[in-house]
């Protein structure tokens, strides 16, 4: 009878209910559906992860870019610092030069003041001798 | 001395732009930032046109066509006017006819602005364009009003210099050449022009048919020039990193060492002995001799090269325009004056620090206004602020005497009894108690006041001497003795040559007042500056020749005699307490221990003058002070004190008090030829025969000694002795007058004969005693015989004929 029914496209399942589809296939279909659903979920997760990852990476790229620029800047600065130092040195050099001139002036003045002092001392001594 | 600078924010400029940007930024925030940056960059246009319109206000204009006015009071700039868009300014100069007032120029002040397309415009005070003239076919590099205000010059890159009248009518084309002119300046007397082309500088006098002086000045382009009104020298700055100083003949006076960058601008101060030099991020304050006081660097923030500089009319502040468009205003601080125990230093715009080393005190003096000028000496400090004079006595520092109404004082000279100030309107002599003593006047003074300099005005102990500016050979001498009857009528003295500099003695007695003059050939002359007013004194005095006092007055007959006592002087200075003179030559200096009394006698001058080599000091020596017996020279910034003969100083002091025996003792103690000669000169002048004889014998002047002995043989106080005495002092006319007035005709004739004054001898003989005629003719015959010549004198010829007829 089962075969009869099968011919008519009807099946009887384990608990003797009448089915229009082979229960085995129905079961498999159900399983497949469940698996598909699971797969879809996993795919969803994966997509999220990928998106997160992408964001992370691009952020990182931005940082790298920034750092790179900074590095180039620093590099340039380093390059100019040598020049700057040179200019600074020149400034200091000329300041030293100025101070040296000033020193020379003062030394000269001192020398002449000493001379005046000794002359005056001489006159005082002379005067005391003649007293 | 230092320059204190601040960079003036062109606040209103930036504000304007910011405001406009913000409104646009709200619409387009993304592009806004970019635009802002661009605009700010565009705002950095070089500032090459800066000038003072008064002592407080600066006008400047850069390539943004906007004329701004910066005021020192508000420290802010405001827009004044806008130039047409196609007018790119290259030079700006104010003509200040209203004089040097602080309160802003008068209505007649006019502004000249030149453009890079060969046009110049003249604006009036309210910034309205009065003239717009197309002058050159290329950019005008320089447009300057002449110092006398009569016209203006424009020099262009087409190699042409033109002179225009004040209203903008073309007067003349001074120069036409192929090379572009980078800079041009007037001479202070407006009679010549200095300009630069490439590496060359040229001076072109404006007189017809005068020759152009041209020389190679720098190894690079000459970028800037300045002609000093103060000392009549020219400075130039070039692309070879050097600045140089030249005299008006084009001789090099100073060459700086190489700086770090090209010298883009130089500018002399018109009032003080100061030159400011601008380079990249650096301003240097130098003296006119070239050595530097200090330099001022702008490392943070940088300002760029200084394109243009201009001193305010009172010479205390300098305005500079830089390549980054900044306006930098600087003023001089740490100016220092030293006199004996006192030292005054400006520490800020309105403060002076006065130190006294004898009691170790140090006072900070604060003023309500800007300090413009100050003078120190004889225990007093005179400070001139914008509108006031403050007189400080070293003993009462806390209670200054204040005089109002003296604006913009240019020169202060302190004397023993008085001090003199030269301000915008006139010359004023005050006592230290603040009382106006004299406000001298002579015809034409009013017009000359702006042109007077410290070299042309001098205050002595009891005289004030002014060199006339319209006729440089004339000096006006004012008597300052209180109650002198002719205080307001100067005695005018005329020299033979043009006078460059005058200096009156600062000490001595009433009877011994002298003025020394340096003429344009740098020769030194001396003349008495008092006892000048009795023009008829000679005759009157000789009438009572028996009277000793009248005899003194008798000197007047030779009044105004100018004696030459030195050559090749650059500058001179009198001692503060005695009549000793020191003068600087090129490579040596001279001390005249007795310039006044000995002036009539060249041998005495030679005996009392000491010339000392000064090569050890270096080049370009100037005199800083001469206090008591110490001369201070300034050389390359160093103050070098040198003792003069201190005995001579003491000798002068004792003689001033009339202590003859004391003076003799000093001379015997010191045993110095100069000293004896000085004593001899003064003693002879004061009729101290005994002392002068001893002094002359000690100074080994045998001829003088024997002559003095001869004088002493004559009966004392007789006319003969007085006459001989006058002769001794070199006063021939006076001697003759004395004899004539005392009816000593034979002696008078003999005197004339001795002096080989034949005509006068004949005249005297014919007029008074015909019997002396034979003697005169006899002498003349002998003279002719000795010369082996025939008679040539038209006066004697008829007599000769008569004589031969008699024979």
Describe the structure.
Chain A: Keywords: Cell projection, Cilium, Coiled coil, Flagellum. Chain A: InterPro entries: FT20 (IPR028172). Chain A: This is (Mediterranean fruit fly) hypothetical protein. Chain A: One of its GO terms (biological process) is protein localization to cilium. Chain A: It is found in: Cell projection, Cilium. The complex is a heterodimer of chains A (about 130) and B (about 800). In chain A, a hairpin with a 5-residue loop joins strand 1 and strand 2 (about 20). Chain A has one domain (about 1-130). With about 130 residues, chain A is mainly α. Chain A contains two helices and two strands; from the N terminus they run H-E-E-H. The radius of gyration of chain A is 52 Å and the shape is rod-shaped. Residues about 10-40, about 100-105 and about 535-560 of chain B have low confidence and may be disordered. By secondary structure, chain B is of the alpha+beta class. Chain B has 17 helices and 55 strands. Among the domains of chain B are: about 45-135, Thrombin, subunit H (Beta Barrel), CATH 2.40.10; about 345-440, Beta Barrel (Thrombin, subunit H); about 750-805, no CATH class. The longest helix of chain B has 17 residues, at about 10-25. Classes of the chains: A mainly alpha (about 130), B alpha+beta (about 800). The interface of A and B includes residues 98, 104, 113 and 116 of A.
Form type of chain A: rod-shaped
Shape of chain B: globular
Contiguous runs where pLDDT drops below 50 for at least 5 residues of chain B: 11-42, 100-105, 533-558
> Compute the gyration radius of chain B: what is it?
32 Å
Our count of domains of chain A comes out at: 1
CATH topology of one domain in chain B, by name, is Thrombin, subunit H
SS element count, helices of chain B:
17
How much of the sequence lies in strands of chain A comes to under 5%
CATH class of one domain in chain B: Mainly Beta
Count of DSSP H/I helices of chain A: 2
Q: What can be said about the biggest beta sheet of chain B? A: 4 strands, antiparallel
Strand content of chain B: 35-45%
Q: Pair with the most extensive interface? A: A-B, 20 and 20 residues
Rg from alpha-carbon coordinates of chain A: 52 Å
Q: What can be said about the biggest beta sheet of chain A?
A: 2 strands, antiparallel
Low-pLDDT stretches of chain A are: none
Helix content of chain B: 10-25%
Average per-residue pLDDT of chain A, rounded, comes to 89
Number of strands of chain B: 55
Protein name (chain A): (Mediterranean fruit fly) hypothetical protein
GO biological process, one term (chain A): cilium assembly
Keywords (chain A): Cell projection, Cilium, Coiled coil, Flagellum
Subcellular location (chain A): Cell projection, Cilium
């Amino acid at each position: 009878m089962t075969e009869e029914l099968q011919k008519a496209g009807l099946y009887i399942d384990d608990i003797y209910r009448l089915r229009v589809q082979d229960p085995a296939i129905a079961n498999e279909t159900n399983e497949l559906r469940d698996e598909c659903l699971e797969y879809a979920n996993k795919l969803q997760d994966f997509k999220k992860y990928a998106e997160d990852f992408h964001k992370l990476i691009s952020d990182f790229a931005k940082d790298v870019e920034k750092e790179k620029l900074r590095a180039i800047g620093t590099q340039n600065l380093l390059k100019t610092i040598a020049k700057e130092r040179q200019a600074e040195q020149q400034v200091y050099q000329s300041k030293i030069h100025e101070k040296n001139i000033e020193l020379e002036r003062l030394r000269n003045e001192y020398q002449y003041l000493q001379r005046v002092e000794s002359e005056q001392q001489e006159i005082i001594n002379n005067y005391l001798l003649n007293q | 001395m230092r320059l204190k600078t601040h960079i003036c924010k062109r606040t209103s400029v930036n504000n304007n732009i910011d405001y406009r940007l913000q409104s646009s930024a709200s619409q387009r925030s993304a592009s806004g930032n970019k635009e802002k940056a661009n605009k700010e960059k565009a705002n950095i246009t070089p500032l090459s046109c800066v000038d003072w319109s008064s002592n407080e206000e600066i006008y400047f204009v850069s390539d943004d066509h906007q004329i701004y006015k910066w005021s020192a009071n508000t420290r802010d700039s405001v827009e004044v006017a806008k130039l047409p868009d196609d007018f790119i300014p290259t030079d700006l100069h104010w003509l200040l006819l209203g004089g040097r007032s602080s309160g802003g120029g008068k209505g007649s002040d006019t502004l000249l602005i030149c453009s890079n397309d060969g046009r110049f415009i003249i604006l009036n005070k309210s910034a309205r364009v009065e003239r717009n003239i197309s002058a050159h076919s290329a950019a005008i590099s320089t447009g300057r009003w002449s110092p006398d205000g009569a016209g203006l010059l424009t020099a262009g890159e087409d190699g042409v210099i033109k002179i225009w009248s004040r209203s903008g009518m073309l007067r003349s084309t001074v120069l036409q050449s192929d090379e572009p002119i980078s800079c041009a300046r007037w001479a202070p007397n407006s009679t010549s022009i200095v300009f630069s082309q490439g590496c060359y500088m040229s001076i072109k006098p404006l007189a017809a048919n005068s020759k152009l002086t041209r020389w190679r000045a720098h190894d690079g382009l000459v970028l800037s020039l300045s002609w000093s009104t103060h000392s009549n020298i020219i400075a130039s700055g070039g692309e070879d990193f050097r600045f140089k100083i030249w005299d008006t003949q084009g001789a090099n006076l100073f060459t700086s060492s190489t700086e770090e960058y090209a010298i883009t601008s130089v500018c002399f101060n018109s009032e003080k002995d100061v030159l400011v030099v601008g380079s990249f991020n650096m301003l240097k304050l130098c003296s006119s001799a070239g050595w530097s006081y200090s330099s001022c660097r702008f490392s943070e923030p940088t300002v760029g090269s200084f394109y243009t500089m201009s001193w305010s009319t009172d010479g205390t502040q300098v305005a500079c325009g830089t390549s980054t468009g900044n306006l930098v205003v600087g003023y001089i601080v740490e100016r220092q004056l030293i006199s004996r125990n006192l030292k005054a230093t400006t520490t800020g715009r309105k403060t002076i620090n006065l130190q006294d080393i004898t009691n170790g005190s140090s006072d900070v003096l604060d003023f309500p206004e800007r300090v413009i000028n100050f003078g120190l000496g004889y225990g007093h400090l005179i400070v001139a602020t914008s509108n006031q004079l403050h007189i400080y006595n070293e003993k009462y520092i806390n209670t200054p005497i204040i005089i109002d109404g003296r604006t913009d004082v240019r020169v202060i000279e302190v004397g023993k009894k008085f001090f003199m100030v030269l301000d915008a309107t006139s010359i004023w002599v005050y006592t230290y108690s603040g009382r106006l003593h004299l406000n001298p006047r002579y015809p034409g003074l009013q017009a000359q006041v702006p042109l007077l300099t410290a070299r042309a005005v001098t205050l002595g102990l009891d005289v004030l001497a002014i060199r006339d500016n319209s006729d440089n050979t004339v000096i006006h001498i004012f008597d300052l003795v209180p109650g002198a009857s002719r205080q307001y009528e100067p005695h005018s003295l005329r020299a033979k040559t043009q006078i460059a500099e005058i200096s009156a003695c600062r000490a001595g007695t009433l009877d011994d007042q002298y003025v020394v003059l340096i003429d344009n050939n740098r020769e030194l002359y001396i003349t008495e500056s008092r006892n000048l007013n009795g023009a008829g004194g000679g005759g009157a005095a000789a009438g009572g020749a028996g009277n000793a006092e009248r005899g003194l007055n008798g000197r007047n007959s030779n009044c105004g005699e100018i004696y030459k006592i030195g050559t090749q002087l650059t500058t001179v200075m009198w001692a503060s307490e005695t009549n000793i003179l020191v003068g600087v030559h090129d490579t040596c200096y001279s001390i005249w221990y007795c310039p006044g009394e000995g002036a009539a006698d060249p041998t005495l001058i030679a005996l009392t003058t000491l010339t000392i080599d000064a090569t050890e000091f270096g080049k370009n020596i100037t005199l800083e002070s001469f206090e008591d017996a110490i001369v201070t020279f300034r050389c390359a910034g160093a103050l070098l004190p040198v003792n003069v003969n201190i005995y001579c100083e003491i000798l002068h002091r004792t003689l001033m008090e009339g202590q003859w025996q004391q003076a003799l003792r000093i001379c015997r103690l010191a045993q110095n030829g100069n000293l004896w000669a000085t004593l001899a000169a003064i003693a002879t002048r004061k009729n101290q025969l005994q002392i002068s004889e001893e002094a002359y014998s000690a100074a080994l002047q045998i001829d003088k000694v024997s002559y003095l002995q001869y004088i002493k043989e004559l009966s004392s106080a007789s006319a003969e002795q007085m006459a001989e005495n006058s002769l001794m002092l070199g006063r021939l006319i006076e001697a003759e007058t004395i004899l004539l007035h005392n009816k000593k005709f034979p002696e008078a004739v003999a005197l004339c004969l001795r002096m080989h004054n034949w005509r006068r001898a004949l005249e005297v003989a014919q007029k008074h005693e015909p019997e002396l005629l034979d003697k005169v003719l006899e002498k003349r015959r002998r003279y002719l015989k000795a010369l082996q010549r025939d008679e040539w004198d038209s006066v004697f010829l008829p007599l000769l004929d008569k004589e031969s007829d008699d024979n």
